[in-house]
């Protein structure tokens, strides 16, 4: 089966030997290797590859006799097919969080290529343009803004702001793009490309283990919880860990600790999620009180008011603790995404496509952000989830069984057939 060969060929790219996790960060050599893999997979299938202005990859399966599908150089703006038939797009992302798993993102891209193979094996031909997309910097692992490629495409982040985003080493997105051979001056909303897309369907590994309990391999996405990330900078006074008396200290680590505990408590009391997964202590010496501690709060909730309540409680606990320790605190949101309800009509189409083929697919919400959530503001979007037996994600332990991956390909092919080939 083509899935296994594609999967195996991508597996070594960006894998860290020690952790077994992936480090595929945008505009790095590992990212270039992922892009080369995508281009090769598309070329093997005679799909036309384009990199859009924002660095997202598109592999187009043009309907016969219909050259110049959306995004092609010189192609007309807007719908490319006769009668205004808009493109059907599927895909996901190839980048990873630090030491992420193999499935988050790549499962959707690999399944998309495998679904195209399946459609061809069955003799289907698209009647409207069909594309596989791989969105850039979905995880925000390098530049701090999740879904950066799709946000730029959809116009939900200012291009100038995006260009200036720094990575941990101070390299800006503009510099990183330019170093990788992509012109950063062209980034920003691409209304012509979006206007040509009629539907976006993203297949993704389940992040949670609801499907294991429901004894189903596939789910249809219902909504994405509102979520965001906030940066907290605690500024204290650097000092000697031995000679500075406790009373004289202004230790920024202490209010951070209070904030971390408050995050857990607020999430628990509101039925939400809050996590501090990244902390930088400066200067970072074992025998010194820190000068400054920066931490990132990731918070998610079933609705916006819950999310606001959680973040509000964490920030007020942090402020209170900072004040009582003589520590300064600056807190600001880095990215906040509202709740996304996927297009009901498209969701119904997915449900009937799967039902017609005897594929049972419960409808589930997700607490994870996705490019499909960003694009949903501009294009009817939907998601399919593939069972993750342990529910673990953003970790090398993330997993889907081969039979479930195959079920995902079957489900995606069914949807693409009904949306794109009829
Ligand atoms: Zn993902």
Task: Provide an overview of this structure.
The chain has 422 residues and is α/β, with parallel strands linked by helices. Helices cover 35% and strands 22% of the residues. The protein is built from 13 helices and 15 strands. Strands 1, 2, 3, 4, 5, 6, 13, 14 and 15 form a nine-stranded mixed beta sheet that branches. A four-stranded antiparallel beta sheet has the order 9-11-7-12, covered by helices on one side. Helix 3 crosses helix 13 (402-420). The longest helix has 21 residues, at 304-324. It is globular and about 80 Å long. Residues 71-82 have low confidence and may be disordered. The structure holds zinc ion (ZN). The site of zinc ion (ZN) has 6 residues, from loops.
Q: In summary, what is this structure?
A:
The chain has 422 residues and is an alpha/beta fold.
């Amino acid at each position: 089966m083509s899935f296994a060969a594609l999967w195996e060929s991508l597996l070594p790219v960006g894998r860290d030997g020690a952790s077994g996790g992936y480090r595929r960060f945008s505009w790095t050599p590992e990212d270039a290797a992922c892009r080369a893999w995508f281009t090769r997979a598309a070329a093997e299938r005679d799909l036309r590859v384009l990199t859009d202005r924002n660095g997202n990859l598109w592999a187009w399966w043009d309907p016969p006799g219909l050259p110049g599908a959306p995004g092609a150089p010189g192609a007309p703006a807007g719908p490319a097919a006769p009668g205004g038939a808009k493109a059907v797009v599927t895909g996901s992302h190839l980048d990873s969080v630090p030491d992420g798993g193999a499935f988050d993102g790549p499962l959707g891209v690999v399944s998309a290529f495998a679904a195209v193979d399946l459609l061809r094996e069955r003799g289907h031909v698209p009647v409207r343009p069909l594309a596989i997309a791989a969105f850039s910097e979905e995880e925000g692992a390098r530049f701090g803004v999740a879904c950066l490629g799709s946000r730029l495409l959809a116009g939900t982040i200012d291009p100038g702001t995006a260009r200036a985003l720094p990575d941990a080493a101070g390299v800006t997105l503009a510099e990183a793009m330019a170093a990788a051979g992509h012109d950063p001056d062209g980034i920003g909303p691409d209304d012509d490309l979006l206007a040509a897309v009629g539907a976006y369907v993203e297949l993704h590994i389940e992040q949670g283990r609801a499907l294991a309990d429901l004894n189903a391999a596939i789910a249809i996405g219902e909504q994405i919880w509102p979520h965001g990330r906030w940066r907290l900078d605690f500024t204290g006074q650097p000092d000697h860990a031995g000679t500075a008396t406790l009373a004289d200290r202004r230790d920024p680590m202490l209010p951070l600790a209070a904030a971390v505990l408050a995050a857990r408590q607020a999430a628990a009391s509101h039925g939400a999620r809050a996590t501090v997964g990244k902390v930088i202590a400066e200067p970072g010496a074992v025998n010194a009180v820190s000068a400054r501690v920066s931490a990132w709060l990731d918070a998610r909730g079933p609705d916006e008011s819950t999310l606001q309540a959680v973040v509000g409680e964490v920030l007020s606990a942090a402020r209170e603790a900072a004040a009582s320790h003589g520590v300064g605190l600056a807190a600001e949101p880095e990215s906040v995404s509202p709740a996304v309800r996927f297009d009901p009509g498209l969701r119904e189409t997915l449900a009937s496509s799967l039902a017609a083929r005897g594929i049972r697919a419960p409808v589930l919400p997700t607490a994870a952000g996705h490019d499909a959530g960003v694009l949903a503001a501009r294009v009817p979007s939907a998601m399919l989830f593939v069972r993750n037996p342990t529910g673990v994600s953003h970790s090398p332990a993330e997993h889907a069984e081969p039979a479930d991956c195959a079920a995902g390909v079957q489900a995606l092919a069914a949807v693409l057939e009904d949306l794109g080939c009829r």
